[in-house]
Amino acid sequence: MLTVMVLAMSALGSCNELPNYATELIGKMCHEVARKYFLKSKCLALVTEDNSKILDYMYPLDFPTFHIQLPLSFMKSSERLDEEFETYPWDKFFMAPIDAGCLAFVVQTSDVKFMVQTFARLAHSPRSIHRANKKYLFVPSRDVEDAIFETGVKNVFSMREIDFMPDLVIARFVAERNLVSGYSKRTLPVADSSKAEGNLTLELITHRFVGQNPSERVSLDMWMPTMDFLYKANLYPDKISNLMGKHITMTTMHYPPLTVIDENADPPIYDGLELRFIYEWARAVNFTWSIVYDGGWWGDVWPNGSGDGLCGLVSSDIADVGFSAIYLWDNAHLFLDFSSIYFGSSLTVVTPRPKLLPGWMVPIHPFNPDMWYAVGMSVIGCTLALYITSKTSMRLLGRGTRNNVVNLYSTWVECAFRTMGLLVLQVPPDERDFSTPRHVPMRHLVTWLILFYFVVTTAYCGGLATVLTLPRYEKPIESVSDLADHNLIWGGMDDAFTFIMRGSSDPKMQTVVRNFRLESEEYLTARAKVGDMGFVIERMLGGHFYMPSFVNEETMQRLRVMKGNLYFSHTVYVLRKGSPLETSINNMIQWVRDAGLFVFWEGLTVRNYMSSPRQHSVINSRNEEDMGPTKLLLQHVSGAFYMLGFGLAVSLVILIFELVRFKFRQIVEK
C-alpha cells in the first residue's frame, strides 16, 4: 500500500464520530465493493477526514492503494494559491493518485458536495495529467438525519459536475426494520450494542444520469453484515451505452462542408459531415442534443479554465461536446479532452496573382540568376586565360627576342573587350592583323572560345525567343518559404489559424505568423476586392475548400491558391477533461471512419449546400489561361532601348572625361 497522509491537529478532531461498529460496517462494505468493482482500476485512493479507522476493516487489498487523510475544516479554511486556475495547497495530495492513474476513489466525508466539487475541479486542472472516467464511492463520516441527508443528496445530484460522474455511489445508514416501509428516522447510538448492530444496514444510492431526469435519486442496493448485498445489483452499471434520451449540449458553428447551419430555414438546417456523425452517434447511444454558440469562432481557453468560442464553452461546462474543424491545439488540451482523429484538413492561403514583369527586364529573363553568374565567371576566366596565354606565348615563342610585341591581347583591358566581343559572336580581327604573332596556343584558345560562346549565345537567343513569345510574371507564392520571402500580409477572422504555427522554431514560419492579421469580415472583404493581401482557406481531404464569404468567383480573378499548405492537422471533437462520453464517441468515430463515411459526407455536403463555381474558382486559379500567340509590342524590346541609352550615356561620360583629361594634360605640359 502506498500511503499519502496529512495528520491533523487534535483541535481539528471530529465530534460525533461514528461508533466502532458503524465504522466496521462501512469498512467491510468498502472492502467488498473494492474486491468486486475496483480490481481493474490500477490503484485505489482512500480519502478520510479525521481518522483512518475504516482502513482497519478494508485491508488487505490486492492492488496498490493511496491513503489521503485531510480534515475537512482544514481544506475549507485553506487560502487559495496565487494562481489563475483555482488551486489550494492541499491539491498536491489528491494529484498523486490522480496522476498515478487511479480509477477508483473511496471517500469518507461529511460533505459530499464539497468533495464532488473538489474532484471535478482537480480533473479540470491543467496540472492533471491522467484523463479518464473514474468510479467514486462516498461513505459517511458522521451521523446525519434523513431529512438533511436527502436535501444534501438532492443538491449534489443537481450539480453540473455530476454530469461528468456517472459512476458515483453514495452510502447512507438505514435501519433494517424500515427497509420496506421507507427511510427511517433514527440516531446511531454511541455505545456498541448487538441490537443496533443487527438493525443497521447501508443503502447505496446514485443518480440516474440518463434519461430526461438525470438528477433523479436511484437506490441501488442494501448492504448488511449478515447478508452481504441484498439485491445483488450492479453498483456501477454501464450508463453510457444507452443514454435513454439524455440531453447533450453541443457547440459548433457554420463551417461548410464540416458543419452547415441555417436556423432561418424552414425547417432549420443542421447538416455537414460532422453533424451527420452526431446524428449517427445520437441514434447509436440514444440521446437528444441542441447547439449553443457565442459567436467567438474557436475561441480560446484562458488560464483560469474559462474561455470563449467553441473551446471555451466546453471548458466552461456550458457545452458537453464541441466541434468544427478543431485541431490538436496544445493550449486547449490542458483543459479539454480530444476524441480520436476522424478527419484531416490543411490550411493554405490564396495570394495575389503574380504580376507581369516590366518590359525592361526582357533581356535578363532568358537566363536565371545562376546562369548569369556562370556567364560572368566565364568572362572573367576567359579574360584571364587570354592574357596569360598571350604573355606566355610572347615570352616563350617570340622571334628570338624577349621584347613584348603590342597586339590585341597585350593588356587586361584588351583581353576583356575581346572576351565581351566573343560573348556577342564578334570574332577578333587578328587573322587580318599581320602584326600579331600567329602562335599556335593563341589560335587554339581563341577558336575554342568562339565555339564556347557560340553555344552560350545560341542558348540565350533561344531563351529570348521564349520570353518574347510567352509573357513572364513575378515568381508565384507556392510555399511557406515563398510566403515569408515575399513578406506578404495575410489574414483571417480568428487567430486560431496560427495556434499550431506559433510554436515553430523555423524562422520562415515565424515570419509568416508575424504577418498574420486578425481582422473583421468587412475589412477582409474590402481587401479581397483589391487583391493586395492573402486570405486563409481550408483544404479538406476530398480536395474541397472551406472559403469565407469574401473568397468568391469575383475576388479569385485577382487571387491564386498556394500550391503548398501552411500545415496539416487532424481534426477532433473536444470534450471536458475526463468526460465519460469519450470512450463512446471514440468507438463511434472508429466505425464511421473505417467505413469511409466522412469523406463521402464531405462530397455530399458540397453538392447539396455549397457553390460549385466558387469551388472551381479556387481549384482552377492555378491554371493559366491560354491567351494564344503574343504580338510583339514596344514593351518587349524596351529593355534593348534601355541598354542602348545606358551605353550611349556611359560613352558620352567617358568621352567628356577623356576630353577634359586631354586638355588638362596639355595645360600641364605647357
UniProtKB/TrEMBL annotation:
Keyword Cytoplasm included in the entry's annotation: no
UniProt superkingdom: Eukaryota
Gene3D superfamilies: 1.10.287.70, Periplasmic binding protein-like II
GO MF annotation terms: ligand-gated monoatomic ion channel activity
GO cellular component: a single term: plasma membrane
GO biological process: detection of stimulus involved in sensory perception
SUPFAM superfamilies for this protein: Periplasmic binding protein-like II
Primary location group: membrane
Name of the protein in its database record: Ionotropic glutamate receptor C-terminal domain-containing protein
Species whose genome carries this gene: Zootermopsis nevadensis (Dampwood termite)
